[in-house]
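User: Teach me something about this protein's shape.
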Amino acid sequence: MMEPCDRLQEARRKAGYETAVDAARAYGWGESTYISHENGTRGIKPRVADTYAKAFKVTPEWLLYGKTKKTSQTMEARPTVPLVGYVGAGAAAHFFSDQGPLGEVPAPDGASDSTVAVEIRGDSLGALFDRWLVFYDDVHRPVTSDQVGKLCVVGLQDGRILIKKIQRSRTRQGLFHLLSNTETPIFDVEIEWAAKVLNMVPQ
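Assistant: First, the predicted structure itself:
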């Protein structure tokens, strides 16, 4: 008899993701948490099942219990996207993605199946933007030329996740400067991944 972890694996594969890591990275989920849900070492809570179901176009009831139609036939009046973490705009930040999705938030116009949200914590973009939602979907490893000069969600080698404008270093190839309106620039850092900001909205 199939368990929730088995159905999660099946849903992920049919959604086009070859591995659990591929799916976790596409949606900004914590890799270790998602893998533990797929291999059955950690149970899947209903809230998290709802997030996975929306991502893979199945119903949470099917994921958890296998008792209803596998494919969701109805669309919500207001689509949502996963909230995958808290992010700082300044030099220090916390990003709690290893806990799995933190909930759902209303999707912005033009959102795709891979769009996710993070919540700004702090006021280095200005006090107005504290607790705003930032949406992104196109994660690149490494940085691509179209991201240079743009406001991006940026993951650094040291684990920090920031919202900054990216600028190439003029003195050190492969490194970047990170700029914001109110904070001192961060010079010559290695960027692990980056995604252009699609939209920012207050909660």
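Now, about its shape. The radius of gyration is 18 Å. The helical segments are 4-14, 20-27, 31-39, 46-56, 60-65. If you'd like, I can walk through any region in more detail.
User: That's plenty for now, thanks!
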